[in-house]
């Protein structure tokens, strides 16, 4: 007669936390979920494109330079993406379990992506379900996925799901701020934001979705990126490319 196998005494391992705070968001008390920026290759060999409608922003994206490229930071962001790709329902369940923690009570906010974007209909739909399931948390995003949001979000958005369309993408020409689109653009400095009559988000990142629109933010501080952008806003730069009939090529995967 065979015996039942002994129960394992090894404690089960908790899933890695999905919602974290980087130095920028921490100052505002905001949590975030982050994917790797634009394009790359996961350790298992799969390639990815997390910003399908990126335009001029691709070449000067802050999340493709500096600390975002540190091996441990990039590895964490790629693990987040792998969990989404490997088992979207399980990732959704893990995120809801995390959001049930008391630290997210009391009017907390979650920025969905300080890197990456809503790269598929299924992925965006999962975030909409999450927002509806946790109505006391504010979820917000900057996005360039204009047509995807037109189809999936704008007809019936959750009350606690806010977004701002950020210029610099290949769908900029679809934006219509005069008829309700909340928009954001990147300017050379705060003086340029004021001169244009726009509203800065310098006081808190939440102003991008809760403050007056249109919203301006300043360029990446790295000199070589500022030199490439010049005195233009991302919107001006992208409009010039669009007028020339140019569409920036999608970048090849890279580590």
How would you characterize this protein structure?
With 255 residues, the protein is α/β, with parallel strands linked by helices. The protein has one domain. Helices cover 33% and strands 14% of the residues. It contains ten helices and nine strands. The protein has helices spanning 23-26, 57-60, 71-86, 88-99, 121-133, 146-152, 190-195, 207-210, 223-229, 234-243, and strands spanning 31-33, 39-41, 47-49, 109-112, 138-143, 161-166, 183-187, 199-200, 215-218. It has a seven-stranded parallel β-sheet with strand order 1-4-5-6-7-9-8. The longest helix is centred in the first third of the chain and has 16 residues, at 71-86. The relative contact order is 0.15.
What global shape is seen?
globular
User: What is the ordering of alpha helices and beta strands?
Assistant: HEEEHHHEHEHEEHEHEHH
Name the average pLDDT. Answer: 89
Number of domains: 1
Q: In angstroms, what separates the terminal alpha carbons?
A: 55 Å
Strand order of the largest sheet: 1-4-5-6-7-9-8
Strand content: 5-15%
Largest sheet, if any? 7 strands, parallel
Task: Count up the helices.
Answer: 10
Helix content: 25-40%
Strand tally? 9
**Structural class designation:** alpha/beta
Unreliably modeled segments: 1-11, 248-255
**Gyration radius from CA atoms, angstroms:** 20 Å
């Amino acid at each position: 007669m065979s015996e039942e196998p002994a129960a394992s005494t090894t404690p089960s391992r908790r899933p890695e936390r999905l919602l974290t705070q980087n130095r920028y968001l921490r100052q505002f008390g905001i949590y975030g979920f982050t994917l790797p920026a634009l394009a790359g290759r996961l350790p298992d060999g799969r390639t990815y494109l997390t910003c399908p409608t990126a335009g001029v922003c691709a070449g000067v994206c802050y999340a493709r330079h500096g600390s975002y490229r540190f091996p441990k930071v990039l590895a964490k962001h790629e693990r987040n993406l792998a969990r989404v790709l490997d088992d979207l329902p399980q990732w959704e369940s893990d995120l809801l379990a995390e959001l049930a923690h008391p630290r997210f009570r009391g009017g907390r906010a979650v920025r969905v992506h300080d890197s990456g974007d809503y790269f598929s209909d299924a992925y965006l739909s999962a975030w909409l379900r999450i927002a509806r399931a946790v109505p006391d948390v504010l979820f917000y995003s900057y996005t360039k996925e204009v047509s995807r949001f037109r189809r999936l979000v704008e007809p019936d958005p959750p009350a606690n799901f806010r977004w701002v369309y950020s210029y610099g993408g290949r769908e900029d020409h679809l934006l219509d701020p005069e008829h309700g689109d909340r928009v954001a653009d990147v300017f050379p400095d705060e003086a340029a934001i004021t001169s244009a009559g726009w509203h800065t988000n310098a006081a808190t990142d939440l102003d991008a979705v809760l403050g007056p629109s249109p919203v301006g933010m300043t360029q990446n501080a790295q000199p070589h990126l500022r030199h490439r952008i010049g005195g233009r806003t991302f919107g001006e730069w992208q409009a010039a490319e669009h007028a020339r009939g140019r569409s920036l090529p999608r970048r090849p995967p890279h580590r």
